[in-house]
Write a structure and sequence with these properties.
Helix content: 10-25%
Strand content: 25-35%
Order of helices and strands: HHEEEEEEEEEEEEEEHEEEEEEEEEE
Radius of gyration: 37 Å
Shape: elongated
Structural class: alpha+beta
Length: about 400
């Protein structure tokens, strides 16, 4: 009997199953390769569109770059105009938008000073288009304003290169509450009118708002656009001319040092407090720490002897005005009876008290242990500071 034995064909050493699996794998790889290379142009456009949206965002809101003093300087279109642009072309074309105007008095400016895009950025109609040539969806209402590209398929939603590319201009990224406390040393001042100037969020031109401090000296302004702004104190206790502030957070606290009127005057003693017997002069230097002068209605000087040896005050010199009077051991004297402008930082206003040993005005005296109290009257407010001199 003859028997035949059949074996599966295995060309070139491969089984039929192996050949089929290889062909399937090659077809999958081919499909993936075709898909990859077909999507590559869209991937480039997708990345370019993301970059374009970021450039537009910086043109509108600026960036966080700081100067050598740690101050942010670039607030973009929104910082100048107080609002987002009505259309994207507002970034490159002024049209009817108010022109930029800088106020040296207030220390900042407002208005359009574009174009707000980098020189290498394509201008003209292309500013409104993504890299597929489709118009950006840019809305300013309802809140928040939003800039969107719908991706390669120009449809909402999607995955991969069809994914929407979007950025929102949230309220907290561009608008702030500006708050602070008006004080005179440890005393909080109520009923003080505080003025804040900034670009009008509707027109873009310079505007202002006034708030009155409450019983705790507290005030707050809402919906203030980020940027360099100007704060003033209008009184009635004291008048402080514009102070530039940089509003760069959604909850901005004005530095205490700018609002504490008690920190605007410095008292620098003369040699009387450190050279012992024989000195007769006590000197005070009055200076405003603000960038503008303050107005003083009156200054009253009071002195009393805290030591064992009696001395006398016989003369007060304030600026260029000198008052001579009968020597007084302990007493009070009005050094100013008319309005005085206290300069900012320099030059200073000097006030000097001359003391003597005897009631007839003769002899020099060591001012050790004398207590001097100076009362400043800022229009309707009285502020008191005490300076104590002791010999070494």
């Amino acid at each position: 009997m003859i028997r035949f034995s059949f074996k599966p064909l295995k060309p070139y050493g491969f089984s039929l199953v192996e050949i089929i699996m290889t062909l399937v794998l090659l077809s999958i790889l081919a499909a993936m390769s075709i898909s990859f290379f077909s999507n590559e142009p869209d991937k480039v456009k997708f990345d370019q569109t993301k970059r374009k949206i970021e450039v537009l965002r910086q043109a509108i809101l600026g960036d966080d770059t700081q100067d050598n003093e740690g101050q942010r300087k670039n607030f973009g279109y929104h910082g100048d105009m107080g609002k987002v642009p009505g259309t994207l072309t507002d970034l490159i074309t002024q049209g009817t938008q108010p022109a930029w105007s800088y106020s040296t008095y207030y220390g900042f400016g407002a208005g359009w000073r574009g174009p707000y895009l980098h020189s290498g950025f394509t201008g003209g109609p292309a500013i409104t288009l993504d890299e597929w040539g489709k118009t950006f969806a840019y809305t300013t209402t309802p809140a928040p304003p939003t800039l969107t590209s719908y991706g390669a398929d120009n449809k909402a939603g999607g995955t991969s290169v069809d994914t929407d590319i979007s950025t929102q201009f949230s309220f907290n990224s561009r608008m702030a509450t500006v708050k602070g406390i008006v004080a005179m040393n440890a005393t909080h001042l109520s009923s003080q009118s505080v003025e804040l100037r900034y670009p009008n969020p509707v027109s873009g031109s310079l505007t202002f708002n006034v708030q009155v401090s409450d019983a705790n000296g507290y005030f707050a302004f809402s919906s203030v656009p980020f940027g360099v702004r100007s704060l003033s104190i209008l009184g009635p206790s004291a008048t402080v001319r514009p102070i530039p502030i940089t509003v760069d957070t959604s909850d901005y606290q004005v530095p205490t040092s700018l609002l504490n009127l008690g920190q605007t005057v410095f008292y620098v003693p003369g040699s009387a407090n450190n050279t012992g017997a024989g000195d007769e002069l006590v000197q005070f230097i009055l200076r405003s720490s603000y960038n503008q002068s303050l107005q003083l209605a009156a200054i009253t000087v009071t002195w009393r002897n805290g030591g064992s040896t009696t001395g006398y005050v016989k003369q007060i010199l304030l600026g260029g005005t000198k008052q001579d009077f009968t020597p007084v051991a302990s007493g009070s004297r009005i050094a100013l009876t008319s309005l005085l402008s206290l300069p900012s930082q320099n030059p200073n206003v000097n006030m000097m008290l001359t003391m003597c040993l005897n009631s007839d005005g003769s002899g020099t005296f060591d001012t050790s242990n004398y207590v001097f109290t100076i009362t400043f009257e800022w229009l309707s407010l009285t502020k008191m500071d005490t300076v104590v001199f002791t010999a070494p």
